[in-house]
Amino acid sequence: DRTGCWDGGHLRQGGGEVSWGEDSFEGERPSTPPLVQEMQEEESMEWESVDREEILKETHRVRDMLSQAMDTRENEVVDNLEQGKVKKLAGTKALVVVDTNVFISSLGTVSHLRDEEGVAVVIPWMVVQELDSLKTSSSRDTAVRARAAVRWLHNCLQAKHPAVLPQTVEHGRRAATQFESRCADDRILACCLLLKEEDSQVTLLTNDINLANKGMINGIKSGDSENIMGVLSGEEVSNERQEQGPDEKKICSELIMQGENTTRDLLETVLRKEFLLAYGDKLWEKLLSIKPRPSRPHWSLANLFTMFSKHHIAVFGLAFPRNGHELKMRLETVREKLRNRVWRVQEVKVVLSDISGLFDVIKERDSYEGIVDICSDKLADISGQLEDYEMVAAGNQKKRILEDGGDDGQELVQQLFQNVWEIIASFTRGFATILSVSNTLPKFEPDIQFQSQADAAHNLPGFFSTVSSLQESMREVVACQRRGPQLLEFHNLLTQFRTNLELDQAYWATPDYNVTLTQLEMFFGKEQNQELMRGGLDQISDFRQILIRCMNDDSAM
User: How far is Cα 44 from Cα 254, in angstroms, rounded to an integer?
Assistant: First the structure.
């Protein structure tokens, strides 16, 4: 009997290839249809980092070229324009006029605005022309993103989406003439001014600082792809707010980008080596479902996720322990988590932890000439940057609370301590009871009862480890004067205690509040709470001692 695994037209059996019929599958595969290839490239762009400076340079180049051509044509028709007022584009909706560079770098933001209630997206005629020219840009990334934007606009127009409003040629010419616009920037600004003159609420969305400045000078609200929602809601960033520290979303997005690039570098190394081992130097590239680019990075992160899934059975399932099940699970988890495009600190922590777990699974298979350790070090550095930002942000938040007299979260911190300490006490008493360990804990609800001593012995080590980590971290915080890194670690352990606990907590309701690092720091800083914290440390230390006796008695049984 022939047994093997199907992969890309080859039946792998033992160490070689088996083919059947008159045709061999060892040659090149049929070429991918252009439309399919374009859509694959567009999908992969969703995962890749965006070079805004490069995009701005390329759009400015095309903009200058088109402006010169348009100047010549419009000189011939400007005298024939109707002087009457053009038809309004959008009734009572708030209009967001979108610049070309936003379509290229942040198409997802434009889609979000289109779907936002009470908002309509206006595409200037100049932008439509620039996107068409950028489809054939010498920059591959810009060209791919431009094609995606053109296809997005085409789909919206075909569906007659009520929130997508392209500027007509007539409206564009009238605006340019009325406001004496000669360069492309001024044409886009003229679009905004004419709409405003027609009694519309207009906001300019651009990543070009010069164009944004022109807009604001002329009374047009302006925002970029990161702060546009705040601008629309009236929560504009003031100079005072900017002095309070870096923006959380921006910092988190940058760190996620670093994490994505590090993950891509490692997966690229793993894929190349495993395919070389499986098929040899002559065949490995022919059997790849997505061909590599000539230079690094050879694949986008999206393409790597696709190939690890497509070739799992034939390659990675055979190479990795336990049929590669854990590798597949970790990859799917990371891929799903990275679909989020708006980031907060806690979400980034979760993603970095998931990526670290993926790296551990890969290292169990091979070190890949030390690349796993290098990428793990990079990931640790990213986590360190996140912790540094968190400490700076916490200090700024504390300053604002003290200056504004806002809520310092005293009651929330007390609720959190009460909840966690109650859970620890209940399970500690449950372990002590089933294992017949003497203790002075009073009987209270819930009365935790394990099914058997074996059940308790199975769960005891994990519970002891979780409680010990929390107790040791709290001891350091209570003892030290400067509570920077120590407090951050304790905050993480305390707020994630229930998440890390693998025991049934159904009796206790899930908290509907969050305790921030700043609130915890201010709680520790109050003189009246010092005795309370020392008492809490004594309690958790007593719980830990009971658990140690449970561990010892369990070992003796």
Answer: 18
Place of tokens 């006029």: 97
Sequential DSSP letters for 169-193: HHHHHHHHHHTT--SHHHHHHHHHH
Q: Which residue has the tokens 């400015």?
A: 60
User: pTM for the whole thing?
Assistant: 0.43
Residues of the chain with pLDDT > 70, as a percent, come to: 77
CA dihedral 115, 120, 123, 124 (to 10 degrees): -170
Cα(162)–Cα(172) distance, rounded to whole angstroms? 20
- The answer to whether the CB of 335 falls within 8 A of the CB of 305 is yes
CA contacts within 13 A on the Cβ side of 509: 4
Structural contact between residues 345 and 248, judged by C-beta atoms closer than 8 angstroms: yes
Helix, strand and coil content of the chain, in percent to the nearest 5, comes to 65, 5, 30
DSSP 218: T
Q: Are 101 and 207 in contact (CB under 8 A)?
A: yes
**Beta carbons of 178 and 91 less than 8 angstroms apart:** no
Gyration radius from the chain CA atoms: 30
- Read off the tokens for 49: 């980092």
d(CA 192, CA 179): 11
How far from 191 is each of 59, 93, 516, CA to CA, in Å? Answer: 18, 16, 45
245 vs 392: CA distance, rounded Å: 7
**Cα 62 from Cα 119, distance rounded (Å):** 29
Q: Which of 77, 85, 97 is nearest to 187 (CA)?
A: 97
Specify whether the CB–CB gap between 263 and 382 falls below 8 A. no
Q: What is the pLDDT of residue 248?
A: 73
Binning pLDDT at 50, 70 and 90, where does residue 144 land?
Answer: confident
At residue 544, does pLDDT exceed 90? yes
CA distances from 161 to 120, 192, 209 (A): 10, 21, 30
Q: pLDDT, tens digit, for every residue of 47-75? A: 444 555 666 677 777 776 666 555 444 44
Contact 266, 370 (CB under 8 A): no
Closest residue by Cα to residue 257 from 386, 374, 421, 116: 386
How much of the chain, in percent, has pLDDT values that exceed 90? 34
Instruction: Give start and end residues of each alpha helix (H) in 311-409.
Output: 317-319, 325-337, 345-365, 371-404
Per-residue pLDDT of 384-427, as tens digits, reads: 888 877 777 666 655 554 454 555 578 889 999 999 999 999 99
Return the ∠ at Cα 311 (arms to 310 and 313), rounded to 5°: 110
What is the number of other CB atoms lying within 10 angstroms of the CB of residue 403?
8
Contact at 8 Å (CB) between 54 and 60?
A: no
**Token pair belonging to 209:** 């600082």
Query: How far is the C-alpha of 557 from the C-alpha of 488, rounded, in Å?
Result: 39
Rounded to an integer, what distance in angstroms lies between the CA atom of residue 407 and that of residue 413? 12
Residue matched to tokens 């889609």: 111
Which residues are bridge partners to 204 per DSSP?
A: 97, 222
